[in-house]
Amino acid sequence: MTGHLLDAVADPVGAVAAAAAELRAGRHVVLPTDTVYGVAALPHDADAVAGLFDRKGRDAAKSVAVLVADPAQARALADADLDALAGLWPGPLTVVVRRAADAVLHLGPEAEALGTVGLRCPDHDLVRALAAEVGPLATTSANRSGEPSPPTAAEAAAVLGGDLLALDGGPCDGTPSTVVDLTVSPAVVLREGALDVAALSTAGLDVAPR
User: Fold this and answer.
1) CB 52, CB 28: distance < 8 Å
2) Which whole number is the average pLDDT over 178-204?
3) How close are the terminal C-alpha atoms of the chain, in Å?
4) Fewer CB atoms near the end CB (10 Å): N or C, the chain?
């Protein structure tokens, strides 16, 4: 079902089923999140993840993040204590942690050497349902690198080549997620997005002031 726009608001169950079939076939899917549109592949499929970099023109040194259905999925991929995220997930927060030794993840040409993974549990029912169905999702924003993220599924699909399934969840023009490095203590904000340092601290995360 490549090159197809599917109304995920009218038929979320059908959208999840269609997206799951595409991902399992090694293809990419544009999907809505609680921030911006993303494009996803299965993280155990090295060829599919490499295709994400090709579509975006993404720097090989920048690994892609992984969206999860719930904290349990995240814990299976992380060699880290994620309990402090209870008040922040689901939400617009990506955390960089040490990856579990047995986690099979292909997140970019140079990601393996880093030994880390960026994890996010988005506040979006459709994405979490898809991750619950097929497992964690290697995901990056649905735009060409260095360009703005398109606010609609159709525009996102078009800039990425147009030959892929796009789940239309309505406009997604929010602020990208905040990215926090939890491999150090106190944690360091790598990218301030929808959550600022004050919000992170209020939720109980030990974050270094910027």
Assistant:
1) yes
2) 92
3) 46
4) C
3-state helix, strand and coil shares in percent for the chain, rounded to the nearest 5: 30, 25, 50
* 171, HSE (Cβ side, Cα atoms, 13 Å): 3
- State the residue for tokens 């996803």: 40
Tokens of 139: 């995901």
- For the record, the structure tokens of 29 come out as 């899917």
Instruction: Report the 10 Å Cβ neighbour count for 13.
Output: 10
Question: What is the radius of gyration, based on Cα positions, of the chain?
Answer: 16
Higher pLDDT, 173 or 48: 48
Cα dist from 134 to 12, 98, 117, 149, whole Å = 15, 23, 19, 25
Structure tokens at 58: 């993404």
Pairing of strands 38-41, 29-31: antiparallel
Q: What are phi and psi of 140, to 5 degrees?
A: -140, 160
CA-nearest of 97, 193, 181 to 149 is: 193
- What's the topology of domain 4-202? DHBP synthase (3.90.870)
* Domain ranges across the chain: 4-202
Q: In the structure encoding, which two tokens stand for residue 203, read together?
A: 């939720």
What pLDDT digit, counting tens, does each position of 18-27 carry? Answer: 999 999 999 9
pLDDT at 19: 98
Block residue for tokens 């960026």: 118
